[in-house]
Design a protein that fits this description.
About 70% of the residues lie in helices and about 0% in strands. It is built from 15 helices and 2 strands. A two-stranded antiparallel ribbon has the order 1-2.
């Protein structure tokens, strides 16, 4: 097939945009922690990107997109990227470019999980966990939804990773936080964000990169990509304003709340971006902002130290987005209809895929974190935690 230069150029651009989201997560999280752990939090995202890059080309891509084994995982036919060409494939772009595009998705998923480790993880143990999690949690889920696995065959829709990336990482962060335990002094004294402008910068990078995340998932420079681009922005705007309004009712309208709501809207529209209209996107974003805000308040009330809120924003936002895809999909956009057009089957397929991913990600992550903690120890010592991870783990300070 002749190379489609327009699509190839767009996918190269989209891949670069999504790559920027991984350090964006680092800056977003880094501003939320205490000053003594800022470098550590940002560094984890950079380390994740490097580690997952190697894992992906060695075996991750093949496990996700290799020939199906029992609907669960791919085989190793593409290990080391053997057989992956640089000439135009059946879709008009080089297969190697698709590998790169999927690589940046795998990286950001693991970066989101770092929320559960904030301010208390031992770097050596984190490296082991990250490699295991990407291989045993992310890769199978990517195969289920996109690589010919059971969820794809069942008809579950996940346009850009609401289930694969966000449900998996959000509930994984919750599982990790439960295993690793609360930070020393959590609940006894205030642990306020040390640099909210840095978090706002991280949110800006995420919002910007999300256009590549969702519109790039059309895998073409076409009308579906344009629709995904527009509804992505609209859902983010609706989510940000909804969270801002809800927090204003309870007190001050914080900038941090606004961008958290925007990210909730971005998360929720991710699985739906190629299937819904702008009207549906507004509804999805509003519900995401309110739902994720309520989940954050519940988490605080229960004293759970998953304090960067990957669970409430990515986990619950992704869960709502998966359900919402089955509700608001309209045939006029991409040929798929949801509950509002009377397609109950699509709604049930999406619900089944989302709930299965939730259970799998939480349970397997809990087991992996527990095993790594018992064998290596996930936490730094009490003294190292007191000093801060910037110095104790990296020998650096801001």
């Amino acid at each position: 097939m002749t190379l489609d230069t327009g699509t190839t150029a767009w996918l190269l651009t989209a891949t670069a945009l999504v790559m920027l989201m991984t350090p964006g997560v680092g800056f977003f999280y880094g501003g939320l922690v205490r000053r003594k752990n800022f470098i550590s939090m940002v560094a984890l995202s950079f380390i994740v990107f490097a580690l997952v890059s190697i894992q992906w080309v060695v075996m991750g891509y093949s496990l996700a997109f290799g020939q199906d084994i029992g609907g669960f995982i791919g085989n190793l036919q593409f290990a080391g990227l053997q057989g992956i060409g640089i000439e135009a494939g059946d879709q008009g772009y080089p297969p190697l470019l698709f590998v790169a595009f999927q690589l940046v998705f795998a990286a950001i998923a693991m970066a989101i999980v770092t929320s559960g480790f904030a301010e208390r993880v031992k770097l050596s143990a984190f490296l082991v966990f990250a490699l295991l999690w990407t291989t045993l949690v992310y890769d199978p889920l990517a195969h289920w939804a996109w690589g010919g696995g059971w969820a794809m065959a069942f008809g579950a829709l996940d346009f850009a990773g609401g289930t694969v990336v966000h449900i998996s990482s959000g509930f994984a962060a919750l599982a990790v936080a439960m295993v690793i335990g609360k930070r020393a002094g959590f609940g006894k004294y205030t642990m306020e964000p040390h640099n909210i402008p840095m978090t706002l910068l991280g949110a800006a990078l995420l919002w910007f990169g999300w256009f590549g995340f969702n519109a790039g998932s059309a895998l073409a420079a076409d009308g579906i990509a344009a629709n995904a681009f527009m509804v992505t922005n609209i859902s983010a705007a609706a989510g940000g304003l909804a969270w801002l309004a809800a927090s204003w009712v309870r007190g001050k309208p914080s900038s941090l709340g606004m961008v958290s709501g925007a990210i909730a809207g971005l998360v929720a529209i991710t699985p739906a971006a190629g299937y819904v209209t702008v009207t549906g996107a507004i509804a999805i974003g509003i519900v995401a902002g309110l739902l994720c805000y309520a989940c954050m308040l519940w988490r605080i009330n229960k004293g759970l130290d998953e304090s960067l809120d990957a669970w409430s924003i990515h986990g619950m936002g992704g869960l709502w987005g998966a359900f919402a895809t089955g509700i608001f999909a309209v045939a006029a956009v991409n040929g798929y209809s949801g509950l509002i057009e009377g397609n109950v089957t699509q709604f049930l397929a999406n619900a089944a895929g989302a709930l299965a991913a939730l259970v799998y990600a939480f349970v397997v992550t809990f087991i992996l974190a527990f095993a790594v903690d018992k064998v290596i120890g996930l936490r730094v010592s009490e003294e190292e935690e007191y000093v801060g991870l910037d110095i104790s783990q990296h020998g650096e300070r801001v």
